[in-house]
Amino acid sequence: MELLSVSLAAYYGDFTVAAASEHLTASQGKTLSVLRRGPASMSVLATTLTCDASNMTGIVDRLEKRGLVRREPSPSDRRVKNVVLTAEGERAIDVIRGRMHHTLDGLSRLDERERDTFYALLERVFTSRPAPDGA
Amino acid sequence: MELLSVSLAAYYGDFTVAAASEHLTASQGKTLSVLRRGPASMSVLATTLTCDASNMTGIVDRLEKRGLVRREPSPSDRRVKNVVLTAEGERAIDVIRGRMHHTLDGLSRLDERERDTFYALLERVFTSRPAPDGA
DNA sequence: TATTGTTATACTCTATAACTATA
DNA sequence: TATAGTTATAGAGTATAACAATA
After folding, report:
1. Which of A51, B34, B119, B134 to pair with A114, CA 20 to 30 A apart?
2. How far is B75 from chain A (nearest CA, A)?
3. Where are the beta strands (DSSP E) in A15-114?
4. Which among A3, A49, A97 has the least Cβ separation from residue B119?
5. Among all strands, which nt has the closest C1' to B52 (CA)?
6. Residue B40: pLDDT above 80?
7. For residues B3 and A117, is the Cβ–Cβ distance under 8 A?
8. Do B118 and A119 make contact, defined as CB atoms within 8 angstroms?
9. What is the pLDDT of residues A10-63, one digit of tens each?
10. For domain B2-97, which architecture applies?
11. What's the pTM?
12. What is the CB neighbour count within 10 angstroms for residue A94?
């Protein structure tokens, strides 16, 4: 648990610094990261980021003001707004991931077989949470 | 990188919820987590948490006000203050770690050999950052 | 009635800049 | 001169409670 704590602090610090290089906060970067997989409603975003729905309003407001995301009305439920990554937003998160030097260097220390093992273990340990697949 | 992002978000969410159950913010919890390894100066804490030194003042202020940490003058350098975990603080971080149910459940899915492999890989990937060992 | 998203509020986190004390 | 820590400030993140629109 101690080792996990240290490892994740290293990853999180790396991500925070990389996001700052694009003038984004960690929360804004995490939001783009989630949306990289596809559009998500405000409530799904809040659940995934483990924060209250009311926070997402402000975070998405700032991202939208900078043209990195776009709110779209859901066709199936008029209460819902789906948040979509713009081309600019996609570029931003890709740049951030490419600048996570400590993490990328760390991964490059593993050969292909080790990397596969690592990913498989990560998946088994962390991929049992209720994955929100919201409309 | 996508998988890392998802995995670490899961861990971070788990930690945040567990810390909240002790009425602590994520930053306060991370600070206790660092101090669990031993005392650290304000500047070492800031470096480890990847934040500005001025932030640590407020975070440690609040933790100290609740009796979870203690500031002690360094014997070797009168500018330095070492932050020490109190017995209460130690209890708090141990409780938090014991409440990280998603992560603990995830780890319990691995047998002993797999767990060793996982830890070894984590160490190789993430343990090359300049580890601050400050006085 | 319940849910989605927003607003208002209060507190915490965060970086920058300026400061004091010490090295 | 440089470094450790604090203070002041402004912007961002955070949860709670109350609200409008929709289901």
Report:
1. B34
2. 28
3. 40-41, 69-73, 81-85
4. A3
5. C15
6. yes
7. no
8. no
9. 999 999 999 999 999 999 999 999 999 999 999 999 999 999 999 999 999 999
10. Orthogonal Bundle (1.10)
11. 0.93
12. 13
